[in-house]
Specification:
heterotrimer; A alpha+beta (about 350); B alpha/beta (about 180); C alpha+beta (about 350); B: about 180 residues; alpha/beta; Rossmann fold; globular; C: about 350 residues; alpha+beta; 2 domains; eleven-stranded antiparallel β-sheet; disordered N terminus; disordered C terminus; nucleus (chain A); Chl4/mis15/CENP-N (chain A); chromosome (chain A); centromere (chain A)
Chain lengths: ~350, ~180, ~350
């Protein structure tokens, strides 16, 4: 086996937890049943790797077969690494078709036109999502399989999710995507996170939204105060806050975002520092919210009073616009901060 | 300014009403549960509020409040400032044995000393007791509930020969001598 | 390093004539100060927070301390503890202490107590003195401890790695207190450790057994972090802080961390605008610090309508270093005229 293949295999064995590795190798279908059973998953990883290596040499496995393992692993457990969301804009009638074969052939042809040495693997999953693995090479160098880019695209939607893309490859990928999907360009949605399903739900507004309703019996349903001896003086206020929180951030299981970043470029306007308020330059800063589940935390802040209502558009834009990176500038003719897309 | 008045309503037989005022919803609910569960002899009603003044629409249905417990979480500065605002909406009659402070988070070493010091000064100037409690354990919460109930029974007049005012002179907060000489 | 007074009175007993409440008065130093450790009549509540601090003038530490040793101090993030005075600690016996401590660690490991240390053998402990950190005559010299070890299958030529380091220091201590200590006691009240928890507790245990002292956790409360933020910002004109980063933690479910990184020039402008008219460059008052923090918090509130005061300030960092409320600090440069004045 080639050195590159050996390196890739050992890296895969090192990185993938044993339980998942066993599952993925089972789905790989390149090892016979007996070979698979001969592997001992209770060994230390380096021993397992050697055994696996000898089996692969027996079956004459090449690099492109090994990349299938990685693809299987990444698509089965999509919460590895950070995904960035992009959108295909200026779509024409031809675009957003559901023809996988057509898209695949077009994409491969287009990308290979743009760059000589590149290795592309594409696969369509049952949920209509297309997974693309790209190993980039240079003009004189072979594709680097140790740092692949992953792209996930749901046909018939304009959204594309990208992980591990270097800046120098960005224009190439976007051009290939634009050509294959028959759209004008690819735009950064400014949304990123580790959980692919959460990003998908947030972009496509698939989480459970709540709309204002006059007949909310929310708190009574939840039976927060079962005891008749306990009465909440501010129950109406509590219900109102709960309602607002649900409206802004959703209900049920919320998409799992980890961070939200705001680049502030607004003027300082507080009392007590008139010198500062008078000057024209903005008071620059960057605010970053982080939590294991950001939307849940923010929802709790609103319902518990740590965030006052009405909820500021800066926070509600996370769910309403489906993004978590914002550049906030002052409105030209007003004093309310305005969100704007960052320039890329 | 709408004040909460202690004697504007008639008391009810064998009943005691306590008002818990504080920012922390979870702790309030748990404490209220513990208070109601612990008391068997008397009917105890617990009313929860985030801050004073209380909403006017509840004025009629609200019973006479026998004890106001101001819950302060030392871990948050907002809790202390919100308590200070609430104090302004209490009629002075309450401070004759019908108010007490319940402090949580005093063990947290990341809390600045000044917060507790300033709370102590407030409690001393108002002649109120200052109770400390542990809010993270069930044992701490039931201990807090027990102490609140002890004070509540007296201030509701359910303990013979004891009045709220008398009790408060015994258990009210006082400044330790070193803090005294700072001023 | 500045150190906070341990709330307990030292084991040596009450110092004679010490009836004063603890009062904070900082003195200039290399960037590190020690507030007076006052002896209260045994009351925990006798801690008075300083209302103003002197702005330290920079004392060029590189003139006094060996650069290699400085490099050791600025490399790591240190976890702080306070120590009561050490009984019969002699700076001249450091070599013997090195042997005793390494023997102690090995024996504890053999007893199976410190299992997390792993397969390493051949612990070598080195005690050394860092001259120059002590500020006055009364300060004891800083003692630096390193634990080296070789992994089990290392060759002969392999250099042992440093797996743990720590130091005990006293800088700018209150001379009255220091002189009032009974003879035989050495006061090195600040203990900084970097390395695994198990080794840290072993080292502490050895010290406790050998010198009859006791260790306690030192946490940095939010007021102290606010002082740091203000004072570092105030030094921006001397040496750029490059950024001012503040991190709050809000008790939401799940807990929410909010970090606010301010552009250094803008932070400096804000700091200047809250300084009182008649303030000299030398002292800053608590009012100014409060106004500075209020300014940042209300600018934040205007945008997000979230009350940062409902949470706790947990971390402050600039190019000069960082401080975390759990008692972890990092000093990035000793050339700063910054302050580590914990009270």
């Amino acid at each position: 086996m080639e050195d590159v293949a050996k390196e890739l295999l050992s890296r895969l064995v090192r990185r993938i937890p044993l339980v998942r590795l066993r599952h993925v190798l089972g789905r790989w279908e390149r090892l016979s049943k007996t070979q698979l059973l001969s592997l001992d998953f209770t060994q230390p990883k380096w021993a397992l790797c050697e055994n696996l290596l000898s089996l692969c040499e027996e079956n004459e496995i090449a690099v492109k077969d090994l990349t299938e393992i990685e693809m299987l692993y990444r698509s089965e457990y999509p919460d590895q690494g950070v995904w960035h969301v992009f959108q295909l804009v200026d779509t024409s009638e031809e675009s957003l078709s559901s023809d996988f074969m057509h898209f695949r052939d077009q994409f491969k042809a287009n990308l290979k036109d743009l760059i000589n040495h590149v290795s592309i693997k594409m696969k369509k999953l049952e949920d209509e999502s297309v997974w693309i693995r790209i190993a980039w090479g240079g003009n004189f160098s072979r594709p680097n399989h140790l740092k692949p880019t992953y792209v996930v695209h749901h046909l018939q939607t304009p959204y594309v999710f990208v992980s591990s893309l270097a800046n120098k490859h960005k224009p190439l990928l976007f051009q290939a995507l634009a050509l294959s999907a028959h759209c004008g360009s690819v735009k950064d949605v400014n949304l990123s996170g580790r959980c692919l399903t959460a990003l998908r739900d947030l972009s496509m507004r698939q989480y459970k939204q709540v709309f204002p309703s006059r007949h909310q019996k929310r708190l009574e349903e939840r039976d927060l105060l079962p005891n008749p001896s306990i009465e909440n003086e501010h129950i109406k206020l509590a219900e109102y806050k709960q309602q607002v929180a649900s409206e802004v951030f959703g209900d049920g299981v919320l998409p799992k975002l980890e961070t939200a970043v705001y680049k502030l470029e607004t003027k300082y306007r507080e009392h007590g520092s008139e010198n500062l308020a008078r000057r024209d330059e903005p008071f620059r800063g960057v605010v970053k919210f982080s939590s294991s589940n950001l939307l849940e935390s923010l929802k709790y802040c609103v319902s518990s009073g740590m965030a006052s209502t009405p909820v500021t558009p800066l926070l509600s834009s996370i769910t309403h616009k489906g993004r978590n990176y914002f550049v906030i500038k002052d409105k030209q003719h007003g004093s309310v901060p305005n969100t704007s897309a960052s320039k890329f | 300014m709408s004040l909460l008045r202690p004697f504007s309503k008639l008391p009810e037989l064998n009943m005691a009403n306590v008002l818990l005022v504080g920012n922390d919803d979870t702790f309030q609910h748990v404490l209220a549960d513990a208070i109601v569960k612990q008391e068997n002899n008397v009917n105890v009603n617990v009313r929860l509020a985030r801050t004073l003044p209380l909403p006017a629409e509840n004025e009629d249905s609200r019973p006479r409040i026998d004890l106001v417990v101001l819950i302060v979480n030392l871990r948050s500065e907002l809790s202390l400032s919100s308590t200070e605002t609430s104090l302004k909406h209490l009629d002075t009659g309450f401070f004759l044995g019908k108010v007490c402070f319940l402090v949580t988070g005093a063990r947290c070493t990341s809390v600045p000393h000044e917060r507790l010091a300033s709370l102590r000064k407030i409690a001393v100037s108002l002649h109120c007791p200052l109770l400390f409690t542990e809010d993270q354990t069930a044992k701490g919460i039931s201990a807090a509930a027990g102490r609140v109930l002890n004070i509540l029974r007296v201030s509701a007049g359910l303990v013979p020969l004891a009045t709220g005012l008398g009790l408060s002179t015994l258990i009210r907060c006082s400044l330790p001598p070193d803090l005294d000489c700072q001023d | 390093m500045a150190c906070s007074p341990p709330p307990a009175t030292p084991r040596s007993g009450r110092a004679p004539g010490g009836g004063k409440s603890y009062a904070g008065r900082s003195r200039r130093s290399l960037g590190v100060e020690l507030t007076n450790i006052g002896i209260t009549p045994g009351q925990l509540t006798g801690l008075r927070a300083p209302t103003s601090r002197g702005f330290p003038k920079s004392r060029n530490i590189t003139e006094h301390v060996d650069p290699e040793q400085i490099a050791l101090l600025v490399k790591n993030e240190w976890k702080l503890s306070y120590v009561t005075p050490l009984y019969q600690f002699r700076h001249v016996q450091l070599k013997s202490y090195s042997k005793q401590l390494s023997a102690f660690i090995v024996s504890e490991k053999q007893q199976g107590i410190a299992v997390e240390i792993g397969l390493e053998t051949n612990f070598k402990v080195v005690f050394s003195v860092v001259l120059g950190l002590a500020e006055t005559e009364d300060d004891a010299e800083t003692v630096f401890i390193q634990i080296h070890s070789k992994p089990p299958f290392a060759g002969d030529g392999d250099v042992p790695k440093i797996i743990w380091s720590g130091w005990l220091t006293c800088v700018g201590g209150n001379p009255d207190y220091l002189r009032s200590l009974p003879s035989g006691f050495v006061c090195l009240p600040l203990f900084c450790a970097s390395g695994s928890e198990s080794l840290t507790s072993l080292v502490k245990l050895w010290f406790e057994r050998t010198f009859d002292c006791s260790f306690g956790t030192l946490n940095l409360n939010s007021t102290y972090l606010q002082w740091l933020a203000s004072m570092w910002t105030g030094c921006h004109h001397v040496s750029s802080i490059r950024y001012l980063k503040l991190v709050w933690n809000l008790p939401a479910q799940p807990p929410l961390d909010i970090s606010y990184t301010v552009h250094p020039q803008d932070a400096w402008d804000l700091w200047n605008s809250v300084r009182e008219q008649d303030s000299t460059g030398d002292t800053i008052g608590i009012n100014e610090v409060e106004r500075f923090m209020k300014g940042l918090e209300s600018h934040f509130f205007r945008h997000f309508r979230i009350y940062l005061s409902a949470g706790m300030l947990t971390k402050v960092s600039t190019a000069f270093g960082s401080a975390h409320c759990d008692g972890k600090i990092k000093v990035c440069t000793l050339l700063q005229p910054g302050i580590f004045n914990i009270s």
